[in-house]
Amino acid sequence: MRAVQVTEFGGPEVLRPVELPDPEPGEGQVLIEVDRAGINYADTHQAENSYLASAKLPLVPGGEVVGRTPGGRRVVALLNGGGYAEKAVADEATVFAVPDGVDDVTALSFVVQGATAWLLLRKSVRLEPGESVVVHAAAGGVGTIAVQLAKAWGAGRVIATASSPEKRALALELGADVAVDSKAPDMTAALREANNGRRVDVVLDMTGGSVTDQSIAALAPFGRLAFYGMASRQPPKPVEPAILLGHSFTIAGMWLPHAFSLPGNVYGKALAELFELAIAGKIAVVAGGEYGLSEVRAAHEALRSRSTVGKLVLNPRRLPGV
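User: That's the sequence. What structure does it adopt?
Assistant: Structure tokens below.
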């Protein structure tokens, strides 16, 4: 089969299309003929071995696919790598049927990014009706869904940040009440201004660095910031417990795999609700572009430069330029 393989850690230049043997499913696993694979920002970290879970070489990146099982079932699945390929294997516990009326891009957008947005709002910050919500990187895969979920679940004011006028316009189209330039020199002041001079209740942050620092400074008493990524590759400053006590802030972290350790099939419930919202036309997934195996390097370059919007996908049968 054709696949993308990494044999040395690094940037987009280490992603190389190759021919590899077909994967063999083990006990409790499912073989999937891949129609499309998701391309996520986390994949750029995996390629350089800077992700939360350390990687081993050689590796085929890709943690999510949509396709068909040997029996013809259409499924979407989470993987422990191997998605950038014509075939992949997944544990049965992380394989989910795709309902009629849900297209490939929507299914892939929900299995990681949609579930992340759902968990951030439901579990990490426990959004309450009427609260203000800041969504950083609002034109990205998680951000576009988080904006819509926050509005659907009764947020009083949704404040989106994005790096270009086009991205900010997209966030407004998706339901944000106001959009802020993510390059604002004083993010604390910009967020308070966007919230009519008041401090904000909730921040969803995957940027890191000074954006996180200034977002924490913008929180209202009992405000919550959920940290789920570090796109800037710059860590925020440590937060002293006395700061949390003095301002009644809550800082949460969220890594999607931990959802599978929760009782009550929380991840499955999140995915089912997202599918229902999509079928009902209450959430629109933004397609960010489709790439072939030989074009994955360009996709990672675009992700790292933060020039993308919505959900990027890999079509392993797409020919260059088609």
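The domain at 114-258 is CATH 3.40.50.720 (Rossmann fold).
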